[in-house]
Amino acid sequence: MASLLSATNAVQSRNGQSCLPVHSSEGQATIPVRFDGTNLSISSNNPTANIIDGSSIDHGITKAPYERSFSPYEFNGGTTLAISGPDYAVVAADTRLSSGYEILSRNVSKLHPLTERCVLGSAGCKTDVDQLRSVLDIKMKVYQHNHRKPMATPSVAQMLGNTLYMKRFFPYYSFNVLAGIDSEGKGAVYSYDAIGSFERTPFSASGSGQSFLIPLMDNVISHKNRCDEQRDLPVEEVVEIVKDAFLTAGERDIYTGDAVEIKIITKEGIRTEMFNLKAD
Predict the structure, then answer these.
(1) Residues 6+ apart with CB under 8 A from 30
(2) Mean pLDDT of the chain
(3) In 61, 137, 148, 278, which residue has its Cα 20 to 30 A from 96's Cα atom?
(4) Which residues contact 232 (CB under 8 A, 6 or more apart)?
(5) Does residue 44 have a pLDDT over 70?
(6) b/e map of 202-222 (b: 16 or more CB within 10 Å)?
(7) Per residue in 125-140, pLDDT tens?
(8) What's the count of helices (H) and strands (E) in the chain, helices before strands?
(9) At a CB cut-off of 8 Å and minimum separation 6, what does 74 contact?
(10) 77, 74, 105, 79: which is closest to 92 by C-alpha?
């Protein structure tokens, strides 16, 4: 019987059928396939024919070895942004849920309050985000029952880092920012990577629009490469900056849009604002 390699070298079409690509250990080429026989084989009587009979194939793929792939993750888009102030923190995220070029929903919250002074913002794979939220909620309830008090924001930040690190060999496909008020009443924002490394920063952005927001925040919030005097921004001005930032990201990122949900965290609690973005 002729080898698979000799068959794959025949790149011309037979019986009006186009050559099909085949991934195999002997190299990648195309095989002419005939769909009018009774079995899938190369004739031993005429090895020079180099024709594979594909009549028993129901979807046009030969029985030669070929590659299959599967990913447990799916990127559902979204952008999150958190900014800390002297006595407040602002965290925001858009409400669009996407898959490829499809919009699955226009009203999905990416913000999840963990305490009355701490909010988690997550973009990425929706199923992983939901699972991460469930795990954190359980740990928060256990802490509440054991200590008779809510967990402080720095402790929540450490717990989130530990939770992500425990899954480092099969990470949550979730891009997280954490915002809240610390025990001194100051705004706190924490930035994370996929496996739990984190640091406290003046601001943090994650998700599909991250690259559009960070340069703007470097200039406006961190005051980098500016000669004018840096000042503490009131919360109302920061909220307007957040709205402008998401308008900017929505113009360039197809996964950011529809609306932005903004949560303002102070010592009095959490209040929410909604701001409409482009819906296309």
Answers:
(1) 8, 11, 19, 20, 21, 22
(2) 84
(3) 137
(4) 85, 86
(5) no
(6) bbbbbbbbbebbbebbeebbe
(7) 999 999 999 999 999 9
(8) 5, 16
(9) 99, 125, 126, 127, 173
(10) 79
